[in-house]
Design a protein that fits this description.
The protein has 449 residues and is of the alpha+beta class. The protein is 55% helix and 13% strand. A six-stranded antiparallel β-sheet has the order 5-7-8-11-12-6. Strands 9-13-10 form a three-stranded mixed β-sheet, with no helix packed on it. It is elongated and about 165 Å long.
Length: 449
């Protein structure tokens, strides 16, 4: 079908070209200087003449008239065009130039090539006019009507305008029919291509439905990527601060441990020394005035070495050292508490994310919403208690139970049956005596069916 339409368009173009052949593509025999003849198209010979007379100072008008004649060679001539061409040819013929004898004659006689071109062009125009006159002087029955000689002689000086016949030539009917067929064929081609394109688009939409859904999901994920990156950076900062706080608490714990060890060592050292109240001078204050009357220092010097073994004996006998294990047990309890922080439950948070320190060591379904674990002297971490009753209550009032201290991973789902804690939140205390836990970082939770 496409080949047939292309062939129809080619025939239409060929018919139009045949019906309206411009003078530029017609060939004729022209004479040149020296009596030489050449066969060329009007366009080629006109171009040759224009190049010859271009820039000629002796004959400047010839180049201008040839330029005026050039547009009429490139198109089929109408009646008005033929009149203008005839006028240009007359102007060329009226140009004069001196011949070999010095007399002024028409330039068409001195310039053989230009004269041949004008003569052939005039003959071509007269031939077409004669053909049109013949068609106009022929009646419908084939009888030729001869024009009046007097009338023609009176019209010799008047430009002849050919009246178009009322009958349309057959070629125009053919061209019109071919044009209509070509338009119909182009319309059919457009409709057929549009139908095929629509079918392909529907087929592509049907086959790529899953791809489009995945693309939409990918776009949604791309929109969430900046938020996730921001969250990750916040958590990285939180982890760094947590590590610094942990390091600080460890340093404080180490300092406290050393202090306790020093106190224990001091206690042990104080227990190994002899008590001051066992000296003989202190228990017998009434005998103090009798000491100067007896021999002065010898009895005292003799008693001191006798009592020193009694002071050293307790240091050697209490090998079990009962007080020392009690102190070391206290130190071990402190270290155990540092390694295993206390755990408890807290109830509903405040709007600013803080909790009142009303801790409960045992789980209460009506009060225990968050499980808290102490991580340092002033810090703790918390998570949501994944209990079915608490999940149902939290989903009924998320703005009260969840929003102040939780971030939702993947959005909230009101039909969820469980709430998993993806990342635990952080709490801090300004001092040990405070009754409030302040929110440092929210916990991240995920809803699951």
């Amino acid at each position: 079908m496409r080949r047939l339409l292309l062939l129809t368009l080619a025939l239409c173009y060929a018919t139009l070209t045949f019906a309206q052949t411009p003078l530029a593509s017609q060939k004729d025999t022209f004479k040149e200087s020296g009596g030489k003849s050449t066969t060329a198209t009007y366009a080629d010979f006109h171009k040759k003449l224009s190049a010859f007379f271009k820039g000629s100072k002796a004959l400047p008008n010839v180049s201008g008239l040839l330029n005026q004649l050039e547009p009429y060679l490139k198109k089929p001539l109408t009646d008005q065009d033929k009149i203008k061409v005839t006028k240009i040819l007359n102007d060329l013929e009226n140009l004069t130039e001196k011949d070999e004898k010095g007399q002024k004659v028409s330039i068409l006689k001195t310039r053989v090539g230009l004269g041949s071109f004008v003569e052939n062009l005039r003959t071509n125009l007269e031939t077409e006019e004669a053909a049109m006159l013949d068609s106009d002087t022929t009646l419908a029955d084939g009888t030729e009507v001869m024009p009046d000689t007097a009338t023609h002689s009176a019209m010799d000086g008047v430009p002849f305008i050919v009246n178009k016949s009322s009958d349309s030539p057959w070629v125009w009917w053919v061209v019109s029919g071919i044009s209509i067929l070509a338009a119909l064929g182009l319309g059919y081609l457009y409709w057929d291509e549009k139908k095929k394109r629509d079918h392909l688009e529907r087929q592509m939409l049907n086959t790529s439905s899953q791809a489009s859904q995945s693309f939409v999901k990918m776009q949604q994920l791309e929109k969430q990527v900046p938020q996730l990156i921001t969250k990750i950076r916040e958590y990285e900062k939180a982890i760094e601060e947590y590590e610094r706080a942990l390091k600080h608490s460890q340093e404080q714990g180490e300092t406290e441990r050393k202090r306790w060890l020093q106190e224990v060592q001091n206690l042990q050292a104080s227990m190994t020394k002899p008590p001051v109240h066992e000296t003989p001078a202190t228990p017998n204050p009434p005998q103090a005035p009798e000491i100067p009357a007896v021999i002065p220092v010898l009895p005292v010097a003799e008693q001191q070495p006798e009592e020193r073994p009694s002071a050293e004996e307790p240091t050697q006998e209490p090998l079990p050292e009962e007080p020392v294990p009690a102190e070391s047990a206290a130190v071990e309890d402190v270290e155990t508490n540092d390694r295993n922080p206390a755990e408890f439950y807290l109830s509903t948070p405040n709007k600013d994310g803080s909790f009142r320190d009303l801790r409960s060591a045992h789980f209460d379904p009506s009060q225990s919403l968050y499980h808290v674990r102490i991580t340092g002297p002033y810090s703790a971490e918390f998570e949501f208690v994944n209990d079915p009753a608490l999940v149902s209550e939290a989903l009924r009032y998320p703005e009260t139970f969840l929003d102040p201290v939780c971030e939702y991973g993947g959005g909230i789902q009101f039909g969820a049956r469980s709430i998993e804690t993806v990342a635990k939140g952080k709490l801090t205390k300004p001092d040990l005596e405070s009754d409030r836990w302040e929110l440092q970082y929210k916990a991240i939770i995920r809803f699951e069916n």
